[in-house]
Fold:
Amino acid sequence: MLKTKKIAVTGGLAAGKTTVCQIFKELGAYVVSADEIVHQLLSPGTTVGQQVIKLLGSDIISGQELDRKKIAAKVFFQRDLLHLLEEIIHPAVFDEIEREYQKINQKKTHVLFFAEVPLLYESRREDCFDAIIAVFADSELCRKRIFQHNPLQEFERRMTRQMDPLIKADKAHYSIENNGDMQELKAQVQSIYSQLTKE
Structure:
């Protein structure tokens, strides 16, 4: 049997990456999320957690986990500190994605393996994947989506850290425009799924 294809899903903030990955999962793909892996790694009991505590201080500990809001507040306006934090977290996340991929590839249970990686191009790890899908949407629509959960200035701050979503879409093997309804989105995802399974 051929090896499981390893595909990254990336794109702009609030563009719909998680929804796209959920649809791929419903179609039969195996899906992991970089954000979920970060959440697992950011614990006082992990090696990564201990390194982050050493970098930022013990006041980021909240109960049995590290407070991501406190971490964000400490590094957002300090680029050097943010860079040091990313040097701890990014390699650990990609190592975990690779471990999970190798496990699935050996089991031969899935044809496609998807990893949702928001900062794929920013972390320069695009060569780790067989194909890349970029999800993008109108910037005003993305602002409205994230404003439901975060202040607008939070959206603006986070976007300054990321590559322009249209550049990501141009660099990717496939792109998905998420400006319409769920039916339109599903149609695009199903089309890409068919192409990837036929190749």
User: Anything to note?
Assistant: Residues 32 and 85 are 22 Å apart (CA to CA). Residues 79-107 form the longest helix (29 residues).
